[in-house]
Design brief:
Length: about 70
């Protein structure tokens, strides 16, 4: 299982958090997703592909600025 942290500068509120968590949690292979509004990050655990997670964040209406391994 891998953990990635996505920097998403557009996160600003609870609605953002709910929208992103809802989309990303539906991706095959995602075991856990946690959005930190203050840090503007999305932490994803599981075996989901990077492209699929990025697509889910995009579908929620947000853009990934960068990603790092946790």
């Amino acid at each position: 299982m891998t953990t990635r942290v996505y920097s998403v500068p557009g996160i600003s509120c609870g609605h953002c958090k709910a929208a992103i968590e809802g989309e990303v949690s539906g991706v095959d292979g995602v075991a856990a997703v946690e959005v930190d509004v203050d840090a503007r990050t999305v932490r994803v655990e599981g075996d989901a592909g990077d492209d699929a997670v990025r697509a889910a964040i995009d579908e929620a209406g947000y853009e990934v600025a960068s990603v790092s391994a946790d």
